[in-house]
Hints:
mainly alpha
Amino acid sequence: MKRWAGLLAVPLLVLLAIPAADLxxxxxxGKGCARCHEIRPQLDSWEHSAHRKINCVECxxxxxxxxxxxxxxxxxxxxxxxxxxxHSDVLxxxxxxxxxxxxxxxQWQAGPHAATFExxxxxxxxxxxxxxxxxxxxCHGMHFEGAIGDLVTPVSxxxxxxxxxxxxxxxxxxxxxxxxxxxxxGAPLLKDSPPEKFRPSLALYDRRSQSAIAxxxxxxxxxxxxxxxxxxxxxxxxxxxxxxxxxxxxxxxPKGVHAGLSCLACHQKHSQxxxxxxxxxHPRLSNCGLDVEKMDTTFLNVKSKHNVHWVACNDCxxxxxxxxxKPAPLARASN
Length: 335
């Protein structure tokens, strides 16, 4: 009888240990994790980040299956030198970000950067013109574990294309952690905080090194006036082809009448919308006496041959730019 009682006590203790361990990790604010996992560097950086007042478990959800897998990895000695978030963890954190950053989330969700894996990788028009390649994952699906052939088939211009990972069909290809590093050094943003050029968390996740590169360390090939370091992040994906020619590939470097402007001079941070940007610099009428928002540019019609990023006056006036109309003389007051 004692033998059976001893055998039953083992699984009972295991079951009781699960809620106890869960309570311990929640109350230890990362200290418990750092004792058992090789995440001391991550804990140290979190303690100096803008999110240091947020408990680890508020962003990093865990389950019995996940915890058992981690324990098994330690027992087998299969522990990486630098633990990385899995792709599934990165996607799960999107909803965690939403809990606090509701306005930013809504703007992102309404913009092009919320495009799903299905929208990006099964686009018939794009895939017929350009063959899918591993480099596509540099900007779309940065955290995906595998090559392009593990994600979509066929890897050709023939089609029809389908995702090999059905669970990713409606998942965002550019999640929050593509452009933000939550453990980046920085102070919380308070009401009386001094103005800042950009959040310290702004960083590019580099798929090759599997680490986030701070925006301040990214180069700006074409400086804006005045320089806007945030634009360095945009350039990592919206870049020209190997020739370096402006307007080639996905490059959107402003030239022509908009030369020198920063991307964020016109585009909102999370939605990338530029629909309300013209009025920031222009009166309703241009020097030509026309409404700038009704000119023949891609701002009015995406099919226009005049891209608003690099439109010049002589694009619409090939025979010469007309002189600026002279203002009407002021009427003299009568005696």
